[in-house]
What we know:
Elements: H1 3-15, H2 20-28, H3 31-35, H4 40-48, H5 57-78, H6 82-90, H7 108-117, H8 121-127, H9 129-151, E1 167-168, E2 187-188, H10 190-207, H11 217-224, H12 228-236, H13 243-257, H14 269-282, E3 283-285, E4 291-294, H15 300-313
Antiparallel strand pairs: 1-2, 3-4
Helix pairs in contact: 1-2, 4-5, 5-6, 5-9, 9-15, 10-12, 10-13, 10-14, 11-12
Amino acid sequence: MADDSIAWLRGRLAAAQFTPSEAETFISQMPSRRAGRARAFGDFIHRLSRGDGQVFQLTQRLAERVDVLCEELVFAHDAENLSAFKSVLLDNDWLRDQHWCLGTEAPSEQVRQKVVEARDWQALDEATKVPFANVWLSFMAAIDLEFAQRHFEFFAPRPLFLDLLPTLGPTVEMGAAEIELPRRDRFRLPTRRLLELCFALLHYRAHRVWPSSPPTRKEIARASGYRDVDIGNFYDGTKKLTAKVFGEWWATVARDFATSSEVVPPSPTPLLMAALAWHSGMVAFDARSKVRQMTLFDGGEYLSWWHAHQQDWGAELSAGTVEWPGWLDGPPDVPTDPVP
């Protein structure tokens, strides 16, 4: 990491109550520091785990593979060696057939052949979209699986990140030939679904029972000390939900549910990470911060990766039995016509 990045990280660690000694230990253990070269995926997992190597020990292995792949691809690209770039992908021993498929649109051999036949960087960029998308989906699904089964060990395995995808409001008629959006509650954005899920988690922690329905905006506002309108602004994206704001929101709501002697649990940062990833990648806003366009993702390819990791890592992860609330409805139904 560059010196300015290290300085920034030291500041973030100090804000997170790390002592100077703890901060230096955390930094020295970062994959990029140990390897002496860029390790973006490994460093991301290290930061996400707050330095606890047990939280993402399985995902860290995947991150190391992705980092080595990226390093080799960057080396070939910088050398303008098209053949070497293709060989890194085609001869890689851990990219499986699943990396070369995206739904039913293109069989793996067809996608591989496009890489083989690429004669310039522009053609190769187009040909590699499928494997690169799958590397990202696989990485996200790995974080999802390992985080949920270690952090929520008593609950039944569930791809929680899919419960944070943007959806249409419950009154939208999906089967109609032309979708008409109501004036209110048109969308359920990832930030809204995140706050509802986190409120429910803290409710369960305090009462050992889930709320019977998604918490209302007023309930969340009361517990967090925000005004109702502020929570509404988080819901529709007008107000940004940063890591700092989310951490403060979580701590306040957790304290509202907890007894005076209880220690407040740390905020579930991976859930925030997923919500912000879906939010930035699938929701576009106009100049007035109003939703201009939203991509609906049924989660099929993502779910395939989640199940693949579950099969590979099942013996190393515990699985609880407590069911999640029925109102967590997962990914959205995707209409055949685009949403205006």
